[in-house]
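Appendix B. Raw example, untouched.
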Amino acid sequence: MAFWREIFSSITALVAGAFIALLLAVSLFGPLLSPHDLETMNWDRIGEGPSLVHWFGTDEVGRDLFVRTMEGLRVSITIALITTAVALSIGIPWGAVAGLSGGYTEQIMMRIVDAIYCIPGLLIIILLVVVFGRNQYLLFAGIGAIAWLDIARIVRGQTLQLKDALYISSARALGANTFYLLRKHVIPNVIGPIVIFSTLMVPNVILMESTISFLGLGIQEPDTSLGVLVSDGTQVMESAPWQLLFPGVVLALMVWSLNTLGDRMRMTSQTSQVA
C-alpha cells in the first residue's frame, strides 16, 4: 500500500490514473448508454458533426463515431493486453533460462535475440500478412513476436544479479535442478520489475497496433480500432475534422496516461531500492 501511496502522491500520476479509469469505464459502458450501435448506418446524417444525437458526430457512411471510438479503444487495449501476455510468456522464461544457464547456452540464446532485433518489426508484420492473410489474431502473434525481445533482455539482466545469491547457491548444492530454481527463486524475484516494464509496454503496443492498422495491415472492417479510426479520419480531416479529432485525442490520452503512470512506477521502484 505504501508503494501505491507513493505513486499517487504525484498530481501528474493521479491525473493519469484518473484518465485511465475514465477511459476504461467509458469504453466498457459508454456504448450501452448510446442508442446507436457499431455498424448501423444513418443515411440521413452522413458526415454530420457532433450533436446531441451523435455525440462525436458520424463518419462518411453515417455510423456513430462515439460508439466506434469506444469500440476502437476497447479493441486496441485488448490487443495490447493479449500481446503483452504473449510477450511475457515468451520473454520471461527465455531471459531467465539464458541468465541462469550461462556459458554457451546463454550466448546462443541471446545471439538469437540480437538476430531478431536486426529485422524491422514492421517487416515481420508485413510478411505475416502477406503469407497468412489479414487476421487480427495473427496481428497479436506478430506484435508479440517482436515485443518479447526487450523483456528477455531485462529478465536476463535481473537473473544475472540473482544467480550467485546465497539461497540459489544453497539450492544448487542441495541438488535443485534448473526448472526448480526458475520456478521457486528466479521468476518470483523478477516479476516486480517486469510488471513495471509491462505498464510501459502496453502503450507502446497500442501505438504499434495503431500504426499497423493505419497502414491498412491490421484490424479490418467491420471491426475497428483507434488506428483504423485515425486512418479514416486523416482522409477527411479537412471536411470533417471531428473524425480525426476524437479518436486522436482518445489515443493520445490513453498512451500519455499509461506512459506517465508507468514512468512513475519505475521511478518509485528505483527510489525504494536505493532506500
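End of appendix B.
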